[in-house]
Automatic annotation (TrEMBL):
Functional summary from the UniProt entry: Specifically methylates the N7 position of a guanine in 16S rRNA.
A Pfam family this chain is assigned to: GidB
Broad class of enzyme this protein falls into: transferase
Keyword Metal-binding: no
Protein name: Ribosomal RNA small subunit methyltransferase G
NCBIfam families: rsmG_gidB (TIGR00138)
GO molecular function: rRNA (guanine-N7-)-methyltransferase activity
Similarity field: Belongs to the methyltransferase superfamily. RNA methyltransferase RsmG family.
Positions bound to S-adenosyl-L-methionine: 82, 87, 133-134, 148
Listed transmembrane segments: none
EC number: 2.1.1.-
């Protein structure tokens, strides 16, 4: 027996999705379930998600991110900055199969995992770019930039204002301290001709603890 081999994650601990999840995802529910299983197994074994997250994978991660999709149109081109394990990019791609979603992630191992999962889920609308987002100026242009748990709003604005087209939007999933973060963005909003941030509290009709989505629009 080789003791260095990682133990396989006990998938029986995977959170049961809340009532209404199947209806929420509709035709994408089987793929969403498979994505949850990937996160709970190889996602944990490869270090993309912490083992303690397994009993809140649906509520705190997949659904917490999926509710952003209500702000996204079929014609959008979404750049998910610091996608990590595909959050929020993969739930968006599942719910918006006509929307192009680009997962931007610099770390090689994470990119390898994303490639494996995106292929397995058959997500034809997803492209994976291994890069830091600030390296993509003049290479990529998005109508929407999404982000969760990557950097403070000031850094996110500095990194992304040049990869957003006219009327481009930032949709950032943020925690309770968002007001303090936003207070530091005033000069940047003016400098880069961005709108005042709107904070949307979204439960998608399914979450007990709603997500906080900060929306900033390029004027
Ligand atoms: C804490 S993880 C969050 C992952 C995912 N968004 C989530 O909510 O679970 C932050 C991710 O941002 C990536 N990252 C760090 N700097 C970046 C940059 N300059 N451009 C794009 N991604 C970056 C990291 O490699 C990491 O995967």
């Amino acid at each position: 027996m080789c003791s260095s081999v990682l133990p396989m994650t006990d998938i029986s601990a995977l959170e049961v999705p809340p009532a209404g999840t199947e209806a929420f995802f509709g035709a994408a529910y089987p793929a969403a379930t498979r994505y949850a299983q990937h996160l709970a197994t190889t996602g944990i074994e490869w270090g993309l998600i912490g083992p303690r997250e397994i009993d809140r994978l649906w509520t705190r991660h997949i659904l917490n991110c999926a509710v952003v999709a209500e702000f996204i149109d079929d014609s959008d081109v979404v750049g998910d900055v610091g996608s990590g394990a595909g959050l929020p990019g993969i739930p968006i791609a599942l719910l918006r199969p006509e929307t192009q979603v680009v997962l931007i992630e610099p770390m090689e191992r994470r990119v390898e995992w994303l490639k494996m999962v995106v292929e397995d889920l058959g997500l034809d609308n997803v492209r994976i770019v291994r890069a830091r987002v600030e390296e993509l100026v003049d290479e990529e242009m998005f109508t929407v930039v999404t982000s969760r748990a990557v950097k403070a709003m000031t850094t996110l604005i500095e990194w992304t204002h040049e990869v957003m087209g006219p009327d481009g939007r930032i949709l950032a999933l943020k925690g309770a301290s968002v007001e303090a973060e936003l207070a530091k963005t005033k000069k940047l909003l003016k400098r880069y001709r961005l709108s005042q941030p709107k904070i949307h509290i979204v439960d998608g009709g399914i979450l007990d603890i709603p997500s906080r989505v900060v929306e900033i629009v390029k004027k």
